[in-house]
Write a structure and sequence with these properties.
This is NADP-dependent oxidoreductase. By secondary structure, this protein is an alpha/beta fold. It is built from 9 helices and 15 strands. About 45% of the residues are buried. Bound molecules: NADP nicotinamide-adenine-dinucleotide phosphate.
């Protein structure tokens, strides 16, 4: 039995960021690896995910992060896929590939009960972190459960060239939306949305007010909005909403680095007259949807009807840079660190 190496390289949070995180808030350290013990796997991580929600876990403001804050001077955590190199767990052998939550590090010792076997023959390993993983499930849950998508809806998605947004827009189209509109932060991303991902219209939110551009893109209003941004996007969506419209509050990345409470949508009272539904969501509440999600989405992936993009950062040294890039819009689709 191969014993784990004594240490591995792992990113630690060393200071709680105030406002925009900076590289000094993180340190890459040699970190002890637990002994293998019983029922555990030694995994060599191949890819790990860096996600905007992790910003909430870096602070310690109660009620802001929906998971407990990361401990200081401990390895960060998040989804990862890798290869089992040693196992003391029944049913797992070296060479297996698993999805688990000990990301931000090169090697991990994880309880087998917290690992899910994945099949690299059925889909590329990275798909289990993106289109077939939490990213895809977030888009699916937001549209079809939180915001009760109906065939014929006009759908607006913000962060539309990002991981969740690009999936939500395509899924809405596949399920019979009348019109799908996306917003993104560059002309290149806008082009991608319309020319490659099948959005009917898209706009660059940096070039003119969101409300103006949304009104132009959706002359008959919108019925459903998947909000990944908050701020002026949410306000514009409320304004453009048709009666009985539905909003899935999935994320508010425009506000994650704010040091003071941002103003709420100034037009929230419109939700009364329009009988709008605004509903927050956390993807982990939708684990029971996974089998249905997988059954429905896998054929779309196989047929190429649902495509996905990934931005890969190479090597563990690049992880913090990749994470910070999420707040600048450096990525297209899912951001992954490749080891
Ligand atoms: P992502 O969209 O791949 O990356 C973040 C994107 O946000 C960037 O590419 C950037 O694109 C955009 N952005 C950054 N700052 C912005 C700003 N000030 N205004 C507008 N857009 C900005 O990330 P993701 O993983 O798919 O997550 C997207 C959102 O969904 C996040 O808010 C995340 O917290 C949320 N989320 C929530 C759940 C849940 O369970 N509730 C699950 C997954 C994700 P541009 O170039 O277009 O600006």
């Amino acid at each position: 039995m191969l014993e784990p190496p004594a240490t591995t390289r792992a990113w630690h949070l060393v200071a709680r960021p105030v406002g925009e995180p900076s590289p000094q808030d993180f340190a890459l350290r040699e970190t002890p690896l637990a002994p293998l013990g019983d029922g555990r796997l030694l995994v060599r991580n191949a890819y790990f995910s860096v996600d905007p929600y992790m910003r909430g876990r870096m602070g310690d403001t109660p009620g802001y992060a929906y998971f407990p804050p990361y401990a200081l001077d401990e390895p960060l955590a998040g989804h990862a896929v890798g290869e089992v190199v040693a196992s003391t767990a029944e049913g797992f052998t070296p060479g297996d590939h698993v999805l688990h939550f000990a990301g931000w590090r090169e090697h991990a010792v994880v309880p087998a009960a917290e690992a899910t076997r994945v099949d690299p023959e059925a889909a590329p390993l990275t798909a289990y972190l993106s289109v077939l993983g939490m990213t895809g499930l977030s888009a699916y849950a937001a549209l079809f459960h939180v915001a009760s998508f109906r065939k014929g809806d006009t759908v607006f998605v913000s962060g539309a060239a990002g991981a969740v947004g690009s999936q939500a827009g395509q899924m809405a189209r596949l399920k019979g939306a009348t019109r799908v509109i996306g917003s993104a932060g560059s002309d290149e991303k806008v082009r991608l949305l319309v020319e490659e991902l099948g959005f009917d219209a898209a706009f660059n939110y940096r070039t003119a007010p969101v409300a103006e551009q949304l009104a132009q893109a959706a002359p008959d209003g919108i019925d459903l909005y998947v909000d990944t941004v908050g701020g002026d996007h949410l306000e514009a969506a409320i304004h453009a909403m048709n009666e009985h419209g539905r909003i899935a509050l999935c994320g508010a990345i425009a506000q994650y680095n704010d040091v003071e409470a941002p103003p709420g949508p100034r037009n929230l009272a419109q939700a009364i007259g329009k009988r709008l539904t605004l509903r927050g969501m956390i993807v982990t509440d939708f684990q029971d949807l996974l089998p249905r999600f997988t059954e429905e989405v896998t054929p779309w992936v196989r047929s190429g009807e649902l495509t996905w993009r990934e931005t890969h950062a190479d090597g563990i040294d690049s992880a913090v840079r990749a994470f910070l890039g999420l707040f600048r819009g450096d990525n297209v689709g899912k951001t992954l660190v490749r080891l």
